[in-house]
Design goal:
- The complex is a heterodimer of chains A (273) and B (261).
- Chain A has 2 domains: 47 residues, no CATH class; 213 residues, MetI-like fold, CATH 1.10.3720.10.
- Chain A has 14 helices and no strands.
- Chain A is globular, with a radius of gyration of 23 Å.
- The two termini of chain A are 39 Å apart.
- By secondary structure, chain B is mostly helical.
- Helices cover 68% and strands 2% of the residues of chain B.
- Chain B contains 13 helices and 2 strands.
- In chain B, strands 1-2 form a two-stranded antiparallel ribbon.
- In chain B, α12 packs antiparallel against α13.
- Chain B is globular and about 70 Å long.
- The chains are: A mainly alpha (273), B mainly alpha (261).
- Chains A and B meet through α1, α2, α6, α10 and α11 of A and α2, α3, α4, α5 and α7 of B.
């Protein structure tokens, strides 16, 4: 009985430790700068929606939001078809050296990308892709490919081989079988991988920090980090908190909607890697 | 690249062999970073594994609280590290942050220079933010491990009256050795690659008390433009991470349940 009580208290503390800081950000985003400063624990007297307006327009978060949206969606549009095709071949057409190649891809999943940041910086500079969204997208595709192939090939393996054979008997070629039969069947897997990658790409900071040195192409995490540095002098903190909410809320909602499937994908990735 | 001295202008690249590594070995700032990384590894890693295991164990019961906790505990993982860093900077803010305020209410005087400005408290404070961010992942890992414990074992334990702490140390702890090993490797990889959190919260300060290998790498490459030197830092970081992972794998190789079965 005693043990049960302790475990309940422990879990209550854990829940509070997760919720309280996040709720604090959301509540503070509706406060005036003065209220944040004077009464950090209190609720806002009246919600200051203008914080959001200010963050979006004057602080340039809207512009960063758009950049992030472009980068994330184009990356996914390239990544998912390429990843699906590669994963399908790995899952269904074993060839000489395919296991070794697959293991190499898995190694890429574990490799910390920041360690190649110096060579990567020069590679992009020599290609004149430094400081462009195109360059960042190419790097993002390459860096997300390992995980995508890993999850999708696991998914293709679970699809019954008899369907593939049936399609071939009915006169589909290899590519038609893939595009018309196997790919639509894999739709749930594609969705999970897309969401999972979207969360990671939306939040990505390290690579973007180095590969986008100037202001104009900044993605959302860079924009908000920059805002903290400048806002220190302007002390318009309500807008800053509003900016934080704009960064974190979309991914929290996405996670909330798809949490069971994301959980399973995360787990599969964690235990295999 | 780590074998060159190069400031980013291709004409001026000279081959210097292992000079960068010699310089690294004599660089006391680098060793300070290694020390900070190891501190984070030992303290943060212990906290992550211990709390992760305990919470995963506690979350096996049914009830409204556990159901709620299960749906929210990965939130810190889906929030950008940038948000985590800024959030904690505000929580620690000396004039109106929640943490100093809480501590003042308990009756302890918080450091005047702020948690992140104090040379002794800055690293533990960053570590707390890191644990807050990463904990969900380890809870998830251990929850999955507990789910894989055969139902007969759990039932037998229950029939024998093993509950709470007894069950934790008698069943959960020994049977989770494989997951624990995976978790330790993840801790090594995660801690060796701490960057955004430290870079945003403290820039390695005050006076390099929170500087880590990757923030030092960033400074060398993109502030001081010592690209060859930074590349050698990356190589050393990778070697240390691989060595530590190998040590973990060897140390935790033995299956503690094997003797009994």
């Amino acid at each position: 009985m005693n043990g049960k009580l302790i475990s309940r208290i422990g879990m209550l503390i854990y829940a509070a430790a997760i919720v309280a800081p996040l709720a604090w950000v959301i509540i503070s985003s509706f406060k005036s700068g003065f209220e944040i400063f004077e009464s950090p624990w209190a609720l806002p007297a009246k919600p200051e929606w203008s914080n959001y307006q200010e963050a979006w327009r004057e602080a340039g978060i809207g512009h960063n939001f758009f950049n992030s949206l472009v980068v994330t969606s184009i990356t996914l549009a390239i990544l998912i078809p390429c990843g699906a095709m590669a994963a399908y071949v790995f899952a269904r057409y074993p060839f000489r050296g395919s296991r070794a190649l697959f293991t190499t891809f898995l190694g890429g999943m574990m490799f910390p990308n920041f360690l190649v940041i110096v060579p990567l910086f020069f590679l992009l500079r020599n290609l004149a892709l430094l400081d462009t969204l195109t360059g960042l997208i190419i790097v993002y595709v390459a860096y997300s490919l390992s995980f995508t192939i890993f999850v999708l090939s696991g998914f293709f393996q679970t699809l019954p081989a008899s369907l593939q054979e049936a399609a071939m008997v009915d006169g589909c070629g290899h590519s038609k079988t893939f595009w018309k039969v196997m790919l639509p069947l894999a739709r749930p897997g594609l969705l999970v991988v897309a969401i999972f990658n979207a969360i990671g790409l939306w939040n990505e900071y390290n690579l973007a920090l180095v590969l986008l040195p100037s202001d104009k192409n900044r993605t959302l995490p860079l924009g908000i980090a920059d805002l903290v540095m400048t806002q220190h002098y302007q002390s318009n903190w309500g807008a800053l908190f509003a900016g934080l909410v704009i960064v974190m809320l979309p991914m929290m909602v996405v996670y909330w909607v798809f949490r069971d499937r994301i959980y399973q994908t995360m787990l599969a990735g964690a235990l295999k890697g | 690249m780590s074998l060159y001295r190069w400031r980013g202008l291709s004409s001026n690249r000279t081959f210097v062999g292992l000079d960068n590594y010699k310089k690294l070995a004599a660089d006391h700032l680098f060793w300070q970073c290694v020390k900070n990384n190891l501190w984070l590894l030992v303290v943060g890693g212990t906290a992550l594994i211990a709390l992760g295991l305990l919470l995963a164990h506690g979350m096996q019961t049914r009830g409204a609280l556990t159901r709620f906790l299960r749906s929210i505990y990965l939130f810190p993982q889906v929030v950008s590290l940038v948000v985590v860093a800024i959030l904690w900077m505000f929580l620690y803010n000396p004039t109106h942050g929640l943490v100093p305020d809480l501590i003042r209410r308990i009756g302890i005087q918080p450091p005047a220079e702020g948690f992140l400005g104090s040379s002794t408290l800055a690293l533990p404070s960053v570590c707390a933010a890191f644990v807050w961010y990463a904990l969900g992942f380890y809870v998830m890992l251990f929850s999955a491990g507990i789910h894989q414990i055969p139902i007969e074992v759990s039932e037998a334990a229950e029939l024998d009256g093993a509950t709470g702490p007894r069950r934790f140390f008698g069943i959960t702890w020994p049977l989770l050795w494989a997951v624990r090993r995976v978790a330790c490797v993840y801790v090594v990889i995660n801690v060796m690659n701490v960057f955004a959190l430290v870079y945003l919260m403290t820039r390695g300060g005050p006076d390099r008390h929170t500087d880590t290998m990757l923030t030092y790498l960033y400074e060398q490459a993109f502030v001081d433009r010592q690209f060859g030197y930074a590349a050698s830092l990356a190589v050393v970081n990778l070697v240390i991470a691989l060595l530590l992972s190998a040590v973990v794998m060897v140390l935790l190789r033995r299956n503690p349940t094997a003797a009994r079965t």
